[in-house]
Predict the 3D structure of the following.
Amino acid sequence: MTNEVRAVIELKITPQRECGFGKIAQKVSAFEQVEACFLMSGGYDLLVFVKGESLQDVAAFVAQDLSTIDGVISTATHFMLKTYKSKGLADGVSCDGRLAVTP
């Protein structure tokens, strides 16, 4: 899949009795579209990194799969439009489109 779409999804969830956030996090993590799932502090509970074949594919996954899990209160999806740095590596292009010069 060369033109895959990636997104970051914030999930607000209700903790489950006796297992906290773990049960819902396991359900979320089991989907093949999910690359990573993190428990977070702050305004939301889980941060989920997903991939799909198109914007519509990811949107359908969120609407039909993630948001329908018992205990999920809300979702906020952020699509990744351009990568400037990934896994410690920068893309090597300056703002004017020229290759960056490094010593």
Residues 5-90 form a domain with the Alpha-Beta Plaits fold (CATH 3.30.70.920). The mean pLDDT is 89. Residues 55-66 form the longest helix (12 residues).
